[in-house]
Structure formats: structure tokens, C-alpha cells
Specification:
- The complex is a heterodimer of chains A (431) and B (268).
- With 431 residues, chain A is of the alpha/beta class.
- Chain A has three domains: 251 residues; 58 residues, no CATH class; 72 residues.
- Chain A is built from nine helices and 20 strands.
- In chain A, helix 7 runs antiparallel to helix 8.
- Chain A starts with a strand and ends in a 14-residue tail after the last helix.
- Chain B is α/β, with parallel strands linked by helices.
- A six-stranded mixed beta sheet of chain B has the order 6-9-10-3-11-12, sandwiched between helices. Chain B has a four-stranded antiparallel beta sheet with strand order 2-1-4-5, with helices on one face. Chain B has a two-stranded antiparallel ribbon with strand order 7-8.
- The radius of gyration of chain B is 20 Å and the shape is globular.
- The termini of chain B are far apart.
- Classes of the chains: A alpha/beta (431), B alpha/beta (268).
- At the A-B interface, helix 6 and helix 7 of A face helix 2, strand 7, helix 3 and helix 4 of B.
Chain lengths: 431, 268
């Protein structure tokens, strides 16, 4: 049987030139994998609330938005006339011609339909495959004002495909700490993935930490979609360290006023590994804020593409979106693509992007050489530093052990060097 | 001086971008000695430190560098370090993404007698940091990033004490430091000498750092040439008179050489 190929994964909302080959990515799921759901969810039983659903949370938000809109003045902008097909050729000279993307964006804005606008980072087809692997979607929900935590672990053995699908609903004023581990030590092809739909209620706090620590034989897809109500705050930490091919997709709808998302991505690719990221942040609420910070190290002949789109939609007055990336190309054979995009249909907003991409500079190499490090050792230092940081900041011991296992595979005596014990605990903090 | 110097630079000529910077340098440093290399700005002092360490920016056109009985003229910089040479930078570089502790750990890996297990390593580094009045929080920070000038120099001293080289070249480690930081650098040099009895080559154009140091030999460099060598008595003389006379002599010598060359051309 041939490998299953899923196209248009991690697609940018507003594509650029096709020949640049960075609009999206195709993912090949290795042939003949056995579907096996190896997913563990560690959460208090109170979080399994049968009467709460992601759709229900969106519907409640929609009701409030519709009620607020009923009092708003009628929108008579020419863009709207153009998109809704009420144009009559040259009779209306102010009516602009819209691209397919613009038409879709204006119609979405006009409909203001939270459920229809909902998206995740990897796209519909890939998400459908992840849902198929998971077989079902449990809901974890916090109580209003409550505090909770949950850990989700997805793994697979060689020859298996395993996926998780979860809905998360954080009630108003609640706090939820989530950890997600996608890990497999398989030495033959395997697939692991997850898809999360997360609703962050008014004034809630959702903190998600994701660790990808699979071996270099495993394909990994990690997908999420967020909807944020008023004053909700979400932080996401993506730590992507292992996997032959990994795709990370995240889409966030900052629908509620003053909602905020902070995304901190730390990645590493070595050998022939490939990393693919797609971040889509839609600012719809007023004075919403987003920050995307990515920091990575590429070695060997690895490849990476990171797409970051900040969409400042009409009406998001006072919104601000920032994206920054720092990439260190530790070897000459790496292939790095960084695609920051800022879409804007609102005057009173700010969008910032910046990228620092560089090799280890000659003066850095000489400095390290003066302390006895060869070029190869200096490059390996960046790799080990990334792994060490990930191990020290792992959400729990099991995830730390995964990082150490990966570290030992990449760097001889990694655990010994950094004095982690067998369980992955650091015996004594340095400071 | 002992018969066989630890470091021997012989007739060293080096250039960058086809411009000769060092002209026929001779320098011998015996084990346990402290030498001072002085001279005005732009004399080539730092270049000499870098060339001894094998900076690939410079080309050695002539001459040899011998260290601990081995010709290291063609040796890579990392191997010179592992042979026991150390260069402290005037402006230490920053390496974002690499915590100082990781950098230190990588330096001692594979060095006989210096390799330590994690716990021992941390204890040792903490001891050295305390000796240098250095906040140990810096150990977890990215190397040099956001460090003040004084902190960067402390990190240089920390590495000197950790690696215990046979010979250390300190390239204007005192520049831009306040009195407190200068004290820390002096303590670092003392500690190094006490712990290892290693050799020091101190590059400076400021005599203050030398006040509490027993100096064996002073070399004055002007325009890429060593123009004077003497014992420690030269330091107060330079303190009082500066480098003007050396620069004038060097200019006259260069003028004389040019005239001689011209005369030789005319004779032909």
C-alpha cells in the first residue's frame, strides 16, 4: 500500500508565490501503519464535564456577539457591497474589485460567525485524519473561577499511528494548566499526532506546554485551534526537539476584547529532520494582543519553514500583533524558511515582525576555539544547550526523561554531562 | 630565564589582507614568568596575542611559534588551547543561545585532570564565582548577553581559573573597568599564579593593573615591532614618560631604513 499523502497542510491564509514552495506542506503518512490509539489523559475526574461542549461555548459567545451587533450601525462600506455581490459593474465606481482572499475575509467579517470562522493550524484534511486516529473527542472543562491541570500523552510504537483529539473549555475566571507530550522512541516508521480545540472563556487563563520528543523515524503532527473570549489570556509553549518530520499548526481567534495570546516556540532540528510551523492569529476583538516568539537551532541538513500570520481584522481597534524569530544555522547544509505575514484591514492597529537568521559567526568560533572547542564542538554546544534548557523546564519527570532520551541519542553521554539521574531529575540546580 | 622557554616566538611576521602587521617579532617566555607587553594604541599588541593563539584572520608569513616544546605555528586554535594556551579577550564575544554554564562545561570536557562530573563541576564553578564576586545567576544566562563590561571580564577570569592554562595572554583585561572590577581582575591573576604557577603575558597600555604584580620582563611594541625589552624598572619609567620616545625612535628608524633603501636603489 502506498503512503497516504495529505496536501495543503499548515497552509498560509494569504498565499504567496507558489514557486517559493512555502505556502503549505504535504505530509506523507508512512504506509501500512496500524491505527492504535495510545493516548493517556491525566486529569481530575471533575474536568470531565458531560454537559459542556466546545460548540456550546461558541454558541453562547455567538449569542452575546449577536446581541451587541443588533445595536451597531449598519455597515455600508464599499468592500461589503463588493463582497456580497451587490455591485452592478461600473455603476458604482467606489466599489473595489476583490481578490478571492479578500472576498472570503470580508464575508467572514460580515457574518461574524464564530463557529464558521473556527480553524486550527494544520487545516481541515489533516485534522480529519487526526480525528479519525483518535476515534473520539473527550471534553475537559473547568468550573467558573476554578483551577485545574491536565496532562495528555500521545505515543506510538514502530508501525503504529496514534492520535488524540480533545476539546477544552475554560470557564470564565478559571485557570487551566495543560501539558501535552508527543513522544515515541520507535526506530521504524510511526505516526503520532494530536488536535485540540480550546475555548478560553472570559477572563480565563489557559497555559499550554507542548513537547515533541519523537525519534528520527517518527512523523508528528500537532494541531490546535483557540477561541478567546473577553480578557482571556492564553500562553503556549511549543518545544519541538525531535521527529523525522513534524508539523505544528496553531490558529487563534482573538474574538473577545482585550484577549491576549503569547506563543513561545523553541525548536531544534538535526540530521535530515524537517520542521514545519504554521501560526495564524486573527485579531477580531478590540485592544487584543498577540506575541509570537520563536527561537531555533538547525544543524546537519535539516529543513524548517515557519509561517506566522497576524491578521488585524476590521474593527480590532487598538490591537497589536508581534512576531519575532531567531534562527541559528549551525551547519552550512541547512534549509531555513521564515515567512512572517501581517494582514491588515484596520487603521488603529500595530503589527510588528522581525527575524534574525545567522550562522555561528567567525568571531564566536574563534572565541570558542580559544577555549578549546572545535567548530563541530561549538555547533554541538548550541544543540546541547537547547536540550538542556528543555530538560530543565520540562513540565514533569516523564517528559524530562523523554528529552534526556533524545539528548542521549544526539549527544554522547548527554545525561551524564548534565548530571540528570535515571529518572531525569537534575540532582542539584546550578544556581 | 631557563634554557628552554615555555613560549618562544621567533622572527614572526604576520599580515591581514596583505598588509603586514607584525614585523619579525621575537619573544621568549619561560614557565612561571610574568611578561608585560606595552605600547601605544594600534601598536599590534592585540594582534600578537591573536596570532599566537592562531586567529585565522591573520596569515603568518614568516617565523615560528613554539609552545611547550612543540611547534604550534600551524596548529588550530582549539588545539593550542588544549595544549595549555589561553587568550583572554579585550572585548569578549556574546554567544546567544548558549548558557554560560554549558559553555564552561564544554571547555573542560576531555581535558585530562580537569574533567568533572556535574555536581563537582557546579561546586567548582560556584567557588570560582564567589572568589571573583560574581553573581552565580550569570551562570544560567546566555554567554555575554546583557553582561556589563565588568561582568564580561569576570567571566574571562573565571575561565582562566577553571582551565588553569600553562600560559595565559591577557589582552587589555583591565580596559574600561572601574576600581572594583580592576581589583577583581587583579585577584583573578593572583589566584591563577598561586594555583598553577603559570606564565602570564599581560597586554596593556595602562600600568595600574601591574602595581601588585611581580613582573619579570617588559616588552614595548610600536608599529608592529618590539622596540625595547627590559626588566620591571621600565614600568615606572613608561608611567612617567609615556611611549613618545619609543614612537620617535621607531619613526626615525623607519625613516632611516627608507632612506637606506632609496640610496640603495639609486646606487643600482
Amino acid at each position: 500500500m502506498d503512503a497516504l499523502k495529505i496536501q495543503h497542510v499548515n497552509a498560509m491564509p494569504a498565499p504567496t508565490w507558489g514557486w517559493l514552495k512555502m505556502n503549505d506542506v504535504s505530509i506523507e503518512i508512512p504506509a501500512d501503519l496500524e491505527r492504535k490509539c495510545r493516548v493517556e489523559i491525566e486529569a481530575a475526574s471533575e474536568l470531565y464535564e458531560p454537559n459542556v461542549s466546545f460548540e456550546g461555548a461558541l454558541a453562547a459567545l455567538q449569542e452575546r456577539l449577536d446581541a451587541a451587533r443588533a445595536d451597531a450601525p449598519v455597515d455600508t462600506r464599499a468592500m461589503l457591497i463588493a463582497a456580497t455581490g451587490e455591485d452592478h459593474g461600473a455603476e458604482e465606481l467606489d466599489v473595489p474589485a476583490l481578490s478571492t482572499y479578500e472576498r472570503r475575509a470580508v464575508l467572514s467579517e460580515h457574518a461574524d460567525d464564530v463557529a464558521r470562522d473556527f480553524e486550527t493550524g494544520v487545516g481541515i484534511d489533516m485534522r480529519a485524519y487526526l480525528n479519525f486516529l483518535a476515534g473520539g473527542t473527550p471534553v475537559l472543562a473547568t468550573e467558573a473561577g476554578g483551577e485545574a491541570e491536565a496532562t495528555i500523552r500521545v505515543t506510538a510504537q514502530a508501525g503504529e499511528a496514534s492520535g488524540a483529539s480533545l476539546d477544552i473549555v475554560a470557564a470564565p475566571d478559571s485557570t487551566l494548566e495543560l501539558a501535552l507530550s508527543l513522544d515515541s522512541a520507535a526506530e521504524e516508521p510511526a505516526f503520532i499526532g494530536s488536535t485540540l480545540r480550546i475555548f478560553a472563556g472570559a477572563r480565563s487563563r489557559v497555559n499550554l506546554t507542548v513537547y515533541l520528543t519523537a525519534s528520527d523515524a517518527v512523523t508528528v503532527v500537532e494541531d490546535s485551534g483557540f477561541v478567546l473570549d473577553e480578557d482571556a489570556r492564553v500562553t503556549v509553549r511549543h518545544v519541538v526537539l525531535g521527529g523525522a518530520f513534524t508539523a505544528t499548526g496553531l490558529a487563534a481567534d482573538l474574538r473577545g476584547d482585550r484577549s491576549r495570546i503569547d506563543i513561545d516556540t523553541s525548536y531544534l532540528a538535526s540530521g535530515t529532520e524537517q520542521r514545519d510551523f504554521n501560526y495564524i492569529i486573527r485579531h477580531r476583538g478590540k485592544r487584543t494582543l498577540s506575541n509570537m516568539d520563536a527561537n531555533g537551532v538547525l544543524t546537519g541538513t535539516s529543513k524548517k519553514c515557519l509561517r506566522g500570520t497576524i491578521d488585524l481584522i476590521h474593527g480590532a481597534k487598538g490591537a497589536q500583533g508581534n512576531e519575532r524569530e531567531t534562527v541559528l544555522l549551525a551547519s552550512k547544509g541547512v534549509d531555513n524558511k521564515t515567512v512572517p505575514t501581517i494582514l491588515c484591514d484596520e487603521d488603529d492597529v500595530a503589527g510588528n515582525h522581525g527575524a534574525t537568521i545567522g550562522h555561528v559567526r567567525p568571531e564566536q568560533l574563534f572565541y570558542a576555539a580559544c577555549r578549546g572547542l572545535s567548530q563541530e564542538e561549538t555547533e554541538a554546544l548550541f544543540l546541547s544547550a537547547k536540550l538542556e534548557e528543555a530538560a530543565l523546564n520540562a513540565p514533569d519527570d516523564a517528559i524530562r526523561s523523554n528529552v534526556i532520551r533524545l539528548g542521549n541519542a544526539l549527544i554522547p553521554q548527554f545525561a551524564e554531562e548534565f548530571d540528570f539521574d535515571d529518572e531525569g531529575d537534575l540532582e542539584e540546580e546550578i544556581a | 630565564m631557563s634554557q628552554t622557554p615555555l613560549l618562544s616566538v621567533s622572527n614572526l611576521t604576520a599580515s591581514v589582507d596583505e598588509k603586514t602587521i607584525l614585523h619579525g617579532i621575537d619573544l621568549n617566555v619561560a614557565a612561571g614568568e610574568t611578561h608585560v607587553l606595552m605600547g601605544p594604541n594600534g601598536a599590534g599588541k592585540s594582534t600578537m596575542g591573536h596570532v599566537i593563539m592562531g586567529d585565522p584572520v591573520y596569515t603568518v608569513n614568516e617565523g615560528t611559534i613554539t609552545f611547550d616544546g612543540q611547534d604550534i605555528t600551524e596548529l588550530s586554535t582549539d588545539k593550542r588551547s588544549r595544549a595549555g594556551l589561553f587568550l583572554s579577550f579585550q572585548a569578549p564575544v556574546e554567544i546567544p543561545g548558549v548558557p554560560l554554564s554549558s559553555f564552561l562545561r564544554a571547555q573542560i570536557a576531555g581535558r585530562p585532570g580537569l574533567e568533572m562530573k556535574g555536581k563537582e563541576f557546579r561546586r567548582r564553578v560556584k567557588e570560582l564565582a564567589a572568589e571573583l564576586d560574581m553573581d552565580i545567576a550569570y551562570l544560567n544566562r546566555e554567554l555575554g548577553v546583557g553582561f556589563s563590561g565588568g561582568e564580561k571580564k569576570k567571566v574571562e577570569m573565571l575561565q582562566l581559573l577553571l582551565l588553569q592554562p600553562k600560559l595565559a595572554i591577557l589582552d587589555e583585561t583591565d580596559s574600561g573597568l572601574d576600581v572594583d572590577a580592576l581589583g577583581v581582575v587583579s585577584r583573578g591573576m593572583d589566584a591563577y599564579r598561586k594555583a598553577t604557577d603559570g606564565s602570564l603575558v599581560i597586554i596593556t597600555h595602562n600600568t595600574r593593573i601591574l602595581e601588585h604584580l611581580k613582573v619579570d620582563r617588559v616588552h614595548v611594541m610600536v608599529n608592529g615591532r618590539i622596540v625595547r625589552e627590559d626588566d620591571a624598572s621600565l614600568i615606572p619609567w613608561i608611567d612617567a614618560n609615556g611611549f613618545d620616545s619609543f614612537e620617535r625612535e621607531a619613526a626615525q628608524a623607519a625613516g632611516g631604513a627608507e632612506a637606506a633603501a632609496q640610496a640603495s636603489d639609486e646606487t643600482r
